[in-house]
Amino acid sequence: MSSFTLCKKVELHLHLEGAASPLFVRDICKSSGTQIPAIFDKAGNYKWQNFDQFLSIYEIVTNLFLEEKKFEALMRHILDKQVKENVVYTEIFLGPHLWSDKPSDRWEQFLQIASNTADEYKNKFGIHTYFIIVCIRHLGPEKALEASKFASKVKENKVIGFGMAGDEKKFNTLDFMESFNFARNSGLGITTHAGEICGTKSVDEAIKLGVTRIGHGVRSSESEETIKKLREKNIMLELCPGSNIALGLYSSLEDHPINFLFRKNIPISISTDDPPFFFTSLSKEYEKLHNVFDWGVEIFNKINKRSLEFAFCDSELKEKLSQQL
Questions:
Q1: Is 196 known to be catalytic?
Q2: Residue 170 contacts by C-beta under 8 Å, 6 or more apart in sequence?
Q3: What pLDDT score does 2 carry?
Q4: Contact 37/60 with Cβ under 8 angstroms?
Q5: Which residue in the list 168, 196, 205, 285 is annotated as catalytic?
Q6: Nearest to residue 261, comparing CAs of 288, 287, 231, 284?
Q7: Within a domain: residue 37?
Q8: Which H helix or E strand runs over 145?
Q9: How many CB atoms are closer than 10 A to CB 169?
Q10: What is the per-residue pLDDT for 200?
Q11: Is position 65 within any domain?
C-alpha cells in the first residue's frame, strides 16, 4: 500500500463509466450472459491508441451499463474504489445522453440510483458524493441545452454542477453559451473540459463561458496571457496528469506542467479522469508527484483544501471537511 493511500483526498474530475475497471466489465458481461466486447488487449487492458479510439471504447463500455441493476453495480464499484483511496469528497461526471438519446424516464431512474447509492456510502463510510451533469460536446448545442435543463431540474438528487465533455475539436465553445447560462442561472456550479486536446485558445474560450473550473486546462501553460486570466478570475484547473500522459499530451510527468502551474499560484486539483484507462489511481498520482517534484503531504493537503474551496457543494460541508484534511 502506498503511503499516500492514507491521505484524505478530494477528487473533482472523475467520469463514472470511465472508472469501470476492465476486470469489472468482463465480470458484468459474464454474469449477465453478454458477449465480451473486443475492447481489450492480450493482457486484459483497454485497447486504444488515440483519443478518438478512447472515446469509442468509452461509449462501448457505457452501453454495457444501460440496465438499472448493472448501473447500480457500476456506482458501487466506483465508490468502493473511492473509499479504498480514502476519498472524503468526490464529484462524478454523469452524461445522460450516453444513457439515451433524449430526456427520458431512464435519465430520472439512473440519477435516482446514483443518488441513493451515494447516500448509502455516506452513511456507511463518510464519503460525500455529488454529481455534475455533462453535455457531450460532439452531440452539439441543442443536446447540450437538454442536458442543462435536466441538470437544473434534478438538483435535489445531489446534482450540483453542469459541464461539458467529449470531443474538444467539435463545434465552437461559445456555441454552448446558452446551456451554461441556463445552468448558472439555476444555481449550478459550472465547469468544462478545455485545453486538453486543443490549445490555449480553447481555455480562453472556456473562460468566456463564465466557468469557475476548467477540466484539464493544461495547455494554458503555453500562454502567459491565459495564465494571467486564470489567476485574475480565480479559475481552478482540474488536473489529471496520468490521463494527459497516457493520451500523449506529454511524454512524462517531468514534462507535464502541473508543477509549473502550481508554482504560478493557479488553483489546481488532482484527479484521475478515467483511471483504469490510464493505469492510475489517486494514490499513484500522489506517489508519482512526490517522486518527481518532491511534493509531500503538506502540499497535497493544501491542494485538497483548495479543491474544497472550488467544490460545488455548500459552504457548511466545505468547512466541515476542510477540518478533516
A1: yes
A2: 137, 138, 140
A3: 61
A4: yes
A5: 196
A6: 231
A7: no
A8: helix 141-153
A9: 12
A10: 92
A11: no
